[in-house]
Design a protein that fits this description.
The protein has helices spanning 4-13, 15-24, 29-37, 49-52, 60-70, 77-88, 92-104, 111-117, 123-133, 140-147, 155-166, 193-198, 226-243, 273-284, 306-311, 337-341, 346-352, 380-390, and strands at 205-210, 244-254, 257-259, 269-271, 286-295, 323-331, 363-365, 397-398. The protein is of the alpha/beta class. It folds into two domains: 4-166, Leucine-rich Repeat Variant, CATH 1.25.10.10; 182-408, 3-Layer(aba) Sandwich (Rossmann fold), CATH 3.40.50. It has a six-stranded mixed beta sheet with strand order 7-5-6-2-1-8. The N and C termini lie far apart (57 Å).
Length: 409
């Protein structure tokens, strides 16, 4: 394997040395890849002709890196070559990199090529073309072609175009982003959750962590139908969305539930709550970020596998449910996370940093809690992690359902 110092020495000696190395090692894609991946910045007068032969290499990684290095050069003659690769290569990642390389050349002659690539069937190739064309934003022809993509069938394409051309500046909240109303702090309200939230001002909370009542699985949560249940949750989370500050988070803890069968002549019914509520959340303006799996010890859950263990008959397999979901959503915004972080002073950011020992995966192994009064209690550790990972010191954390009040401890 070549060291970076050796590659730099070859670059200093001129293209002939690199071309000879490529020719000598053409039967070893490993050596060629090692060179291509570490070429680094190339001088303006660099002759990349030796890269052209690699565009027909059978190894897609070699083609990819050949294309990537061509994109570092400014010679017009490579535009035509990259155009061909973007249109005809058999591997989509190579075509995407070709479109990206054309854009990185910042060449006015690339405009028409990139406009043509906007009609590609691969949305990621289209996004690379958009990225290249945005360098020329303000050009009437470019703007016209890009704006038309607001009707594109792919959501990523539409999102980029909306942000660049159609997003309206949001009226700043009268309340600083890091602040919250004093009357909302350390308060528990026993009332209709939707009606109470209607009394709260827009963008008044930083984080919501909650677990809604499980559909007809507990005595405290009886609904006439599953549709009524989902409609109720939709109403709740619409209000939560309104009162949540821009770009902040909703963490929803729920899981599929089973409604027991009426008799042995009938089947039980299983409802996939987290999956059924998800489309409603997206439609009202929440952006899905992550799914975290809360894993419990098997001994702590109801045994469903007992019958199967005895008869082992196919179709009757029913595993013990040891997991629940923490669905992580963010209130949709054109602003990046950095904007949210910059709303806090240096001292607050430093004091809010997560300490060592944080969870690195999306599977959290936490023992459940049990309570004589409430049948579904949040473990303190679960709340602690969520609040630490998704809020700053002094933020207002909200739970529209309350439960046993663990979030407020």
């Amino acid at each position: 394997m070549l060291k970076k110092e050796q590659i730099q020495e070859m670059k200093n000696e001129g293209n002939g040395t690199i071309a000879k190395f490529i020719d000598k090692n053409k039967s070893s894609n490993r050596n060629v890849l090692n060179l291509l991946e570490n070429l680094g910045r190339l001088p303006d007068d660099f002759d990349g002709k030796f890269l052209l032969d690699l565009l027909d290499n059978e190894n897609s990684k070699v083609r990819y890196w050949a294309v990537k290095n061509l994109g570092k050069l400014t010679d017009d003659e490579y535009l035509r070559v990259l155009k061909r690769v973007a249109e005809t290569d058999s591997e989509t990642n190579v075509r995407r990199e070709a479109a990206s390389s054309i854009g990185r050349m910042r060449n006015p002659r690339a405009k028409k090529i990139l406009i043509n690539i906007l009609h590609d069937n691969d949305p990621k190739v289209v996004c690379q073309a958009i990225r290249g064309l945005l360098f020329f934003k303000g050009d009437a022809e470019i703007d016209e072609n890009l704006k038309s993509l607001i009707q594109h069938q792919n959501e990523m394409v539409r999102t980029v175009i909306y942000k660049e051309y159609f997003a309206k500046d949001k009226i700043p909240s009268s309340q600083p982003h890091q602040d919250s109303c004093d009357y909302l702090k350390n308060v528990v309200v026993n009332a209709d959750t939707i009606e109470v939230m209607k009394q709260m001002r827009d963008e008044s909370i930083h984080l919501t962590f909650t677990s809604p009542p499980y559909y007809n699985a507990r005595d405290y949560s009886i609904y006439p139908s599953y549709k009524h249940y989902l409609d109720f949750l939709t109403g709740v989370f619409k209000q939560v969305h309104r009162i949540t500050k821009e770009g902040r988070f909703l963490i929803l803890n729920t899981s599929p539930i089973i409604i027991p069968r009426v008799s042995r002549q009938h089947s039980s019914k299983r409802y996939p709550i987290p999956f059924d509520i998800h489309p409603f959340l997206i439609e009202m303006g929440w952006e899905f970020i992550d799914d975290i799996v809360w894993m419990k010890p098997e001994a702590s859950v109801k045994n469903r596998i007992g019958g199967f263990q005895q008869h082992r008959k196919p179709l009757a397999y029913k595993p013990n449910n040891i997991t629940e979901y923490l669905m992580v959503y963010r209130k949709s915004t054109e602003k990046l996370l950095d904007w949210n972080i910059k709303q806090y002073d240096w001292k607050t950011v430093q004091e809010s940093k997560v300490t060592d020992g944080f969870e690195t995966t999306n599977v959290w192994k936490i023992d459940p809690c049990f309570d004589k009064i409430h049948s579904a209690v949040f473990p303190t550790e679960l709340c602690k992690r969520v609040i630490q990972y998704y809020s700053f010191k002094g933020d207002l954390v909200f739970d529209p359902f309350g439960g046993s009040g663990t979030v407020y401890l």
